[in-house]
Amino acid sequence: MTKKNSKSLFDDEQTLIKKLIAGDQTAFEYIVSEHHNIMLSIARAIVGEAFADEVVQEAWISAIRALPKFEGRSKLKTWLLHIVSNGAKSRVRRENRMVSLDEGWESVPADRFDQIGHRLDNVYPWEEATPEALLANEQLQSIIEETFQKLPAHQRAVLTMYDMEGIKMDEICNILDISASNVRVLLHRARTTLHHSIEKYQDKV
Amino acid sequence: MYQCKDITEEVNNYIEGGLPFTKRIGLFFHFIMCSCCRNYLQQIRSTISVITVSQPKEKSSADLKALAKQLHDMCDEHEH
């Protein structure tokens, strides 16, 4: 069964939950393929690379065990994200680890502005402005992928949750246990870094 | 009076609507006057659309099929 087919099959969350409780193998494959990536992203942001896989694995096991008691007060995805987030936070406490929010930041270079902060260079509109047109180019797609992988874990997690998954700002604050202003800073840094990469590519073509 | 450098620092807050009214208006007037910053704003908006459409993923060596099977088997054991 293709991912697209299973998606339409499990569009209704209640059906998915029933199938999971009934032990439907396809439902397990679907839920893991849909949510594993974002769970990993959150675990890496909170606890760091070394323990993230283990934390996600434990979160999946806790979630599946608790599934019959899931009351549907939140979306299944939100519930899963809170399970992994809580697991990662307790692991952080146990390991006494802190993950820095400040790593990996490259602002717009200062030499692009004069003393009063006015731009010295010209900024032109991108020729291929639609995402589809930009992504039609395989080289650019791999540049985006590479740049994303190089972002610090906190930035990847915020970008994944906010720009790709459409999770609200206050929910992200709860999941990552950071302030709204920190979420905004991380989002700004992640987008700016990706913008730099696309801009460099655009300058070459 | 806001400068181009302020735009690069606040552009995402401007897009997300997280700025006080007076600052928002100040930046808005800068956009009216400065074509470079208008283009920069358009580029950042395009960047966001590209991220949303391209959906780059976390690198992972996990075998998701095997994980799904493990969870499924665990569920089976729990029932019996």
**Percentage beta strand of chain B:** under 5%
Structural class of chain A: mainly alpha
* Count of folded domains of chain B: 1
Shape of chain B: elongated
User: Which stretches of chain A of 5+ consecutive residues score pLDDT under 50?
Assistant: none
Basic shape of chain A: globular
- Please give the alpha-carbon distance between the first and last residues of chain A: 40 Å
Instruction: Kindly state the percentage of residues in helix of chain A.
Output: 55-70%
Number of domains in the coordinates of chain A?
Answer: 2
Distance between the termini of chain B: 71 Å
Point out poorly predicted stretches of chain B: none
Largest sheet report of chain B: none
Q: What is the tally of helical segments of chain A?
A: 10
Query: Most extensive chain contact?
Result: A-B, 61 and 47 residues
Number of helices of chain B: 4
CATH C-level category of the largest domain in chain A:
Mainly Alpha
